[in-house]
Amino acid sequence: MDQHEAWGALYDDLMVDAPSASTRRCPNCGAGSSLRLICTVTGLDAGTGLAALWCAECLEGMAPNFPLIPDGAERVLRGTERVPNYRCWGWH
Ligand SMILES: [Zn+2]
To answer: Are strands 60-65 and 87-89 parallel, antiparallel or unpaired?
Structure first.
C-alpha cells in the first residue's frame, strides 16, 4: 500500500469510527497520537462539514473532503478552525 492509499484507507476508517483517530498511527511518519481530524461546519448541528485529516508531527494528511460528519468527530465552527498548512494527498 503506498502513501496515498494508506491515507485514503485511514480516512475511510475514521469516517466510520472517528474517535479511533487517537489510537491510529500516522501512515507517513508512524507517530502515534498525532493524527487530527476536524470537521469545519457552518453550524454545530450541521450534518456535513469540511473534514481535514492530518498528522501534527510531519504535517502530511489527506486533502479536505466534504463527507457526512461521522459520530464522535470533532466539529469546529468555520472561521475558528486551526488547521495548519499541511501537505495534502489528493483525491483521484
Ligand atoms: Zn506523521
So the answer is: parallel
| 53 C-alpha to ligand 1 centroid (Å) | 11
CA of 86 to the centre of ligand 1 (A): 10
22 Cα to the center of ligand 1, angstroms: 13
| Spatial distance between the Cα atoms of 66 and 45, rounded to a whole number of angstroms | 15
Residues of the chain with pLDDT under 70: 92
CA distance 48 to 15: 12
**pLDDT tens digits, residue range 14-38?**
999 999 999 999 999 999 999 999 9
For residue 45, the CA-to-ligand 1 centroid distance in Å is 30
Q: Can you give the pTM of this predicted structure?
A: 0.92
Bridge partners for 50 per DSSP: 40
Number of domains composing the chain: 1
34: CA distance to ligand 1 center in Å? 7
User: What range defines the domain where residue 85 resides?
Assistant: 3-89
